[in-house]
């Protein structure tokens, strides 16, 4: 069964503030689902993939710096 977070739960999961989640949402930088009642929810699997992509990007940048 798929797990979903609300804003407070995803903030705790990511270890950031609710306000930081709001900024990510406003910038379209975090995967979220807007419900018909205008509440944002976050699918755990989507958040995990998003985190992995960010880690991979940083890893690639570090490897590029090491090659210089």
Instruction: Tell me the radius of gyration.
Output: 14 Å
Give the helix level as a range of percent.
Answer: 55-70%
Tally of strands: 3
Structural domains: how many:
1
What's the arrangement of strands in the largest beta sheet? 1-3-2
With helices defined by DSSP (H or I, 4 residues minimum), what is the helix count? 3
Structural class: mainly alpha
What's the structural blueprint in terms of helices and strands?
Elements: E1 4-5, H1 7-14, H2 18-26, E2 33-34, E3 40-43, H3 44-67
Antiparallel strand pairs: 1-3, 2-3
Helix pairs in contact: 1-2
Describe it.
The chain has 68 residues and is mainly α. It has one domain: Multidrug-efflux Transporter Regulator, Chain: A, Domain 2. Helices cover 60% and strands 12% of the residues. It has three helices and three strands; from the N terminus they run E-H-H-E-E-H. It has a three-stranded antiparallel β-sheet. Strand 2 and strand 3 form a beta hairpin.
């Amino acid at each position: 069964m798929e797990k979903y977070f609300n804003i407070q739960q995803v903030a705790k999961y990511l270890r950031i503030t609710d306000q930081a989640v709001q900024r990510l949402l406003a910038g379209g930088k975090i995967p979220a689902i807007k419900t018909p009642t205008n509440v944002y929810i976050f699918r755990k699997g989507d958040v995990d993939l998003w985190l992995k992509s960010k880690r991979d990007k940083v890893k690639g940048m570090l490897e590029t710096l090491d090659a210089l």
